[in-house]
């Protein structure tokens, strides 16, 4: 007759690797001595048997065998034999061994260089040998460390890839964003990734457009001269935008030929008459910079 399985129960998860498999003894119509055959595999079709004991001696009432398994899901079954004929296989039961924490690998962030108006995609590959319970991320992008979880629907997944999106508008320039991935399995093992971080990159302010004096025009040497330009754009919307005005008496524009160098927060600068350079050819330029220089 077919053996009847006792323990472990179907779908039991263990946090130890050495397990005892137990079943009730069966009977033989010819009263022959019975032995038992235990098979364990990580495939339900037992196509590549992980563990087999083909000569388990029957004991009183119930018979058992001990096997050491690795992390993962396994299936087990038993048959009885009198060394001449075999019974049918018993039912198949599933057991799982989970003695390790989930794996967190392949941590990525897109885009690689992030600005304050970007949406940033953060993802990680998270797997467990048996059953993953939850995945969450801890991040300070809102100013303080907070958790965002798969339970709450804030962390999404595509297979084993879990991802979190920090939407545009949650950053400030030069802000340092720190985040850490967490994962736990169904028996409470928790794994934590290394701390990840990135800095929100500041973009240069735009180049101001010079309006006056027009290029290659003449100015009276003993009169004040007004220099003006249009405001510069800033893709990061930084304010205020400041300007550096420089006047040279050579197109080489280095410190040797520097006549005037001043930083202002206006769109024009008037060079006083008493500071006007002597008669000759002179060159000027303006550049803009934001609060992050």
In short:
This protein has 293 residues and is mainly beta. The chain is built from no helices and 23 strands.
Q: What can you tell me about this protein's structure?
A:
This protein is mainly β and 293 residues long. Helix content is 0%, strand content 47%. The mean pLDDT is 92.
Q: Any chance you could write out the topology, listing elements then pairs?
A:
Elements: E1 4-7, E2 12-14, E3 18-24, E4 35-41, E5 51-57, E6 62-68, E7 72-81, E8 93-97, E9 103-110, E10 120-127, E11 132-139, E12 146-149, E13 156-158, E14 161-166, E15 176-185, E16 190-192, E17 196-199, E18 210-212, E19 225-229, E20 242-248, E21 258-264, E22 268-271, E23 283-289
Parallel strand pairs: 2-8
Antiparallel strand pairs: 1-3, 3-6, 4-5, 4-7, 7-8, 9-10, 10-14, 11-12, 11-15, 13-14, 15-16, 15-17, 18-19, 19-22, 20-21, 20-23
Describe this protein with a few key phrases:
5-stranded mixed beta sheet; 293 residues; mainly beta
